[in-house]
Structures are given as structure tokens and as C-alpha cells.
Amino acid sequence: MASPRESNRAPEDESHAASRRIERLSLHLTPMIPLPGDDSYRMEIVTCAGNSKVGRMDVDMESLSVFMRGKHREIQERVFDYFNSRPELQTPVEISMNDHRELCMKQLIGLVREAGIKPFRFVNEDPGKYFAIMEAVGSVDVSLAIKMGVQFSLWGGSVLNLGTKKHRDKFFDGIDNVDYPGCFAMTELHHGSNVQGLQTTATFDLITDEFIINTPNDGAIKWWIGNAAVHGKFATVFAKLVLPTHGSKKTADMGVHAFIVPIRDLKTHKTLPGIEIHDCGHKVGLNGVDNGALRFRSVRIPRDNLLDRFGQVSRDGKYKSSLPSINKRFAATLGELVGGRVALAYSSASVLKIASTIAIRYSLLRQQFGPPKQAEVSILDYQSQQHKLMPMLASTYAFQFATIQLVEKYTQMKKTHDEELVGDVHALSAGLKAYITSYTAKSLSTCREACGGHGYAAVNRFGTLRNDHDIFQTFEGDNTVLLQQVAAYLLKQYKEKFQGGTLALTWNYLRESMNTYLSQPNPVTARWESADHLRDPKFQLDAFQYRTSRLLQSVAVRLRKHTKTLGGFGAWNRCLNHLLTLAESHIESVILAQFIEAIQRCPNANTQATLKLVCDLYALDRIWNDIGTYRNVDYVAPNKAKAIHKLTEYLCFQVRNVAQELVDAFDLPDHVTRAPIAMQSNAYSQYTQYVGF
């Protein structure tokens, strides 16, 4: 039955409504294109297969490619050339777990001993070069990148950063040339994220001058330890340091410390007495990495095997540290291990680069349907495909600049040990690792779906990349836990702001942005809807930062309210989803700020314009995706929201027009992407040859 409103509608109103519906349906096939010099929009038909592009931007490929490569491309080329010259070291599509593990070890040894590329030397001296090598080997096999990270960044990094000169002198060469394959034994069956809750003990024996490493119960078994099941000869074991005392308790718990524990004989490779090693078995992905479980039954190690940079034990059992409390020592220890999070953020962005390249190249080549009696069109000419892949491509660019800046900050931190910078890098690496790995995990499924049935073929890599990358969201800190750390740091900075303290550089925008938030949105700018205004970096960044400040202010008020009745822990749990949204919003602001700065640094005007197009899509797509937040507080008026939507569609179309150039600028040759459907020439020929035609 028609409503009164419908029954009273005039015929011309019905005609107008029908026209509107037809216009909306047509948007599924054709994007909105602005007329030059005019803020209004008109319809433009996309020419089949993209042969004639409306307003197509010319891209200076050489300049863009040089700018995107970064300063360590030479060593990456050495990695590519080595594995390209050794096809027997390339991971086949079908391989058993045991064969994959052995191949992965051969790949690592070949990289170090045959190719002469020694990543361990760059872990502290030049982290940017180390991460560049990791990106290159990850394109060969993600398992290889993780095995390399376990050997050099985790096992090796713990010796470098938690030990002292005696440890470096004894172990450096063996770690460097892979004579001493090692493990990083932190995670336990019952404790992963809560490192301070670890139960493994290291009790000092005053008589023999040794530590006794013990697993007190099944929950304390070290679990998921990379390199443990097959190849590891040593492990850095994190355990509670227990010292004898003369008091009533007889022992004192000095908190979690790190110890070097031999687990296999260097010559025979047999498991040493008191050590139990079990294989964690076949995993969802990363099966080239031999994860194992370790139990210690009164294993004795020399006192010198304590990695004692932050705390020393003398021969008579006295403890000494420049840091006054367990919490301070624990924070310093974990602070030195932040490089793992930096590596995962950087590596995840690299995985997204490979996946988006494969999906976009395929979408440019693949043709389906078209106007009657005309050629079929590229599937990337369909608006729905553009909306799947073009914002993802923009994010790939954004993540590259954000992670490069993170690596630079991390490098500066390693050189200066500046306390403020340490805190900044800790929170920034936690946030970027969590945000980028979560986004990439979702995008890998999107890429697979965007390539239809061919995306399901293992040879086209999406399944392997998705399975190998999935755990990036968990190790080196569960993403939900890491985002809470970011939120906690934001609240600390919020408190500093109102107490008149200085804010760390990354968080400085909060001072001005919070002042803006505490006043009402400007009713004039809320209605500005010209393309020039919406593409202004100041509008975009202000919008991102306003949202973060609004979330920060509101969650601070909620926490204060709920703490009175629920206590600190209960209040935090009540506001947890709000806190996670706050952290993600802040990280998006940081990523956009870095993208804008990268464009400003670019010396070539053409490349600047190309990157500006991509950056505008990154920014406006995210504003549109959260348009409800901006509308709820009248930061954006209804007509401005419509203008943002239309402009976002237009930018998707424009980025599609230069998509080939944008993915080619990543400079990933065919032997790196290795997906037949993405080969730049003779793609279908390559694919049919693979299946045996």
C-alpha cells in the first residue's frame, strides 16, 4: 500500500525520482568526471580497454621509479640477481614442510656465504639497509625473510642489544656466517603478550657460579620458537632471574632477563642434556620456518651467559643495575627489541606491494563484457574493480613512505639513544605494525577475489602470501595489544598537553588540534566543497587530526567517569573499542602526514603531481569511509559530503588511468612477482605453459 506521501506525489516528482534512480544506477558503470574549470560534475563514458583516457596524467616513469626505489636498491638488486641465477634455490609451488625447511636454510646460507650478503652487519650499523635486504628476500619467500629475521634480528639482535662486549666478541662471527643458528625463546604456552608473566626461571647457584634454567610447569614451555625444531644450536631464553638472599623468603625475583642457552651440540647437532625439543608441526603458513617447543630441566649455564647490559650478577650473587626497578629494566629490555616491529611493518608493506602489483596487472590484462558489438573491456575499467584496488594502491604508496620514515627514526634512535625518541619510536612502531599488517591481511583476500578463479591458483601467489602474512598480525605483539599501547601513549600526551609539558614531535599536532576540537566546527568551511579545497593537504590533514582529537577528548572523559565505579582496569575494558579506534585514527593521521611530507621533498614536479593524485585518493577515501563521524559533529555539511564522494570516485578513475605506471614504479620484475597472470607480456602463454599445454 502506498504511503500518503507517495499517493500525493505529482507526476513530475515521480519522473524526477525515476531519473535520479537511473542516474544512480549508471554510476555503477561510469565514474563522475569534473568539467575543467568547473566545480560541477558530468558523466563520461569510459572507452573500452582504456584506450582513450579522459584527462589522463602523463607520468615521468624514470623519476617516479627512482623516487620510489629508495637508497638501498643496489643491494636489493644483488639479492634478486643471486636468486634469479640459482633457480634451484627458488621455492616451488608444491613442496613438503620438511623440504621447505631445508630449502629455506640453504637459501639463507647461500645468501650469506655465496652471494656475500651479510645482513647481520647492518642490524645496528645501518638498519635501513638491513630492512631493504629483508624486503628483497621476502619477495623470494616470506619464510626466508622470517628465518633471516629470527637469526639476525631476534637471536643476533638480542646478543648485540641486550649483551655486552664479551657476548659480541664470542658470538658475532658465528651468528654472522650462520655457523651459530639460534632461536629467540620468549613466548610460552600460557604467556605470549604478557611477557612479565613468564614463568621460566633462571636461579643462580652461588656454589657453582651458574644459572639453572628450569621450566616449572607445562604452561611455561617455550612455544612457537623459530629455528628450534630443526636448525637452532643456541637460544636466547627469557626467564625470571632468581637470586639467593638471607631474608625470610630465601630468594628474590629480579624480573625477566635474557640468557644464552646452548640447545644442541655444535658438532653432532644432538640435543643437549636437560633440553627437550618438540616440533610444532605444520602451520597455516611460513612452513619454511621450523617452529618448535622447548622445555628445560635444570639446565646449567655459566654466569657469563646472562645478557647483562641492563643488570649484572657478581660472583657472590649480588645484583647491580643502573636502572632502579624491575619495570624500568623490563621497559629497557623490550625497548631494544622494537626493531622486530619496525621490520614487520616494513615487510607487510612490501607484501602489499607484491599483491597489489599482481592484482592490478591482471586487472589491466583481463577483459570481460563490454558494449554491444564492441570489444570487451579491461576489468579495471569497471568502477567496482577500481574501488577495490585503487584505494589499496594509494595505501601501498602511503605505507611505503610511512615505513621509510619509521626506519629513519629507528636508525636515529639506535645512534642517539634519546629517551624521548625511544618512546616515540616504540609507540609509532607498535601502531604502524598493527595498522599496516591488519590492512594488508584484508587486502590480500581482496586481491584474490579481484582476480576471480585465476586468483585461486597457488602459482599466482595470493594464497601463499595470505597464509604466510597472516601471522604478522600476531607475532612481535598482538595487534589489539599494540593498538592499546598507542592509545595509552596518546592519553599520556593528552595529560602532558593540559599540564603544559612538551609533546614529542610525532604528537605535536595534538596541541593545536585539541584546541580546535574544544571549539565548535567552523560553519563556513564545513560547507566548502570545491575540488581545490578538498584536495588541499591542509583540509585533509586537519580532518584526520580533528577526528583523532575528538576521539581522544571523548575517551578521556569516559575513562574518568567509569574509573570512579569500575576502577582503572574495568574502565579501560569498558572503553576498549573506543581506544582501539582512537589508536587507528592517530596512525592514519601519521601516515597521511608522512605522505604529504614525502611529496614536498620530491624534486621532480611531474612526480610530485603524480604522488599528489595518489595521496588525495588515500586521504579522501578514508574521510568518506568515516563520513558519519564528520557528519555527526557538523564538521562536514551534507553537500560537502556528497562532493567528497564524487571527488573520491573521480580520483579512483584517474588513478586507474595511471595504474600501470604506478605499479611499474615499484620496479618488481616478473621473476620477483612470479605470478603468471601478472606477467607484463604473454601472461596467458606463461599461465598455460605452467599447467602443461
Automatic annotation (TrEMBL):
<feature type="binding site">
    <location>
        <position position="226"/>
    </location>
    <ligand>
        <name>FAD</name>
    </ligand>
</feature>
<keyword id="KW-0443">Lipid metabolism</keyword>
<protein>
    <recommendedName>
        <fullName>Acyl-coenzyme A oxidase</fullName>
    </recommendedName>
</protein>
<keyword id="KW-0576">Peroxisome</keyword>
<dbReference type="GO" id="GO:0003997">
    <property type="term" value="F:acyl-CoA oxidase activity"/>
</dbReference>
<dbReference type="GO" id="GO:0071949">
    <property type="term" value="F:FAD binding"/>
</dbReference>
<feature type="domain" description="Acyl-CoA oxidase C-alpha1">
    <location>
        <begin position="335"/>
        <end position="491"/>
    </location>
</feature>
<feature type="active site" description="Proton acceptor">
    <location>
        <position position="476"/>
    </location>
</feature>
<dbReference type="GO" id="GO:0005777">
    <property type="term" value="C:peroxisome"/>
</dbReference>
<dbReference type="Pfam" id="PF01756">
    <property type="entry name" value="ACOX"/>
</dbReference>
<dbReference type="InterPro" id="IPR009100">
    <property type="entry name" value="AcylCoA_DH/oxidase_NM_dom_sf"/>
</dbReference>
<dbReference type="GO" id="GO:0005504">
    <property type="term" value="F:fatty acid binding"/>
</dbReference>
<dbReference type="InterPro" id="IPR006091">
    <property type="entry name" value="Acyl-CoA_Oxase/DH_mid-dom"/>
</dbReference>
<dbReference type="InterPro" id="IPR055060">
    <property type="entry name" value="ACOX_C_alpha1"/>
</dbReference>
<dbReference type="GO" id="GO:0033540">
    <property type="term" value="P:fatty acid beta-oxidation using acyl-CoA oxidase"/>
</dbReference>
<comment type="similarity">
    <text>Belongs to the acyl-CoA oxidase family.</text>
</comment>
<dbReference type="GO" id="GO:0050660">
    <property type="term" value="F:flavin adenine dinucleotide binding"/>
</dbReference>
<dbReference type="InterPro" id="IPR012258">
    <property type="entry name" value="Acyl-CoA_oxidase"/>
</dbReference>
<keyword id="KW-0560">Oxidoreductase</keyword>
<feature type="domain" description="Acyl-CoA oxidase C-terminal">
    <location>
        <begin position="536"/>
        <end position="687"/>
    </location>
</feature>
<keyword id="KW-0285">Flavoprotein</keyword>
<dbReference type="Pfam" id="PF22924">
    <property type="entry name" value="ACOX_C_alpha1"/>
</dbReference>
<dbReference type="InterPro" id="IPR002655">
    <property type="entry name" value="Acyl-CoA_oxidase_C"/>
</dbReference>
<keyword id="KW-0276">Fatty acid metabolism</keyword>
<dbReference type="InterPro" id="IPR046373">
    <property type="entry name" value="Acyl-CoA_Oxase/DH_mid-dom_sf"/>
</dbReference>
<keyword id="KW-0274">FAD</keyword>
<feature type="binding site">
    <location>
        <position position="187"/>
    </location>
    <ligand>
        <name>FAD</name>
    </ligand>
</feature>
<feature type="domain" description="Acyl-CoA oxidase/dehydrogenase middle">
    <location>
        <begin position="183"/>
        <end position="299"/>
    </location>
</feature>
<keyword id="KW-0809">Transit peptide</keyword>
<dbReference type="Pfam" id="PF02770">
    <property type="entry name" value="Acyl-CoA_dh_M"/>
</dbReference>
<dbReference type="InterPro" id="IPR036250">
    <property type="entry name" value="AcylCo_DH-like_C"/>
</dbReference>
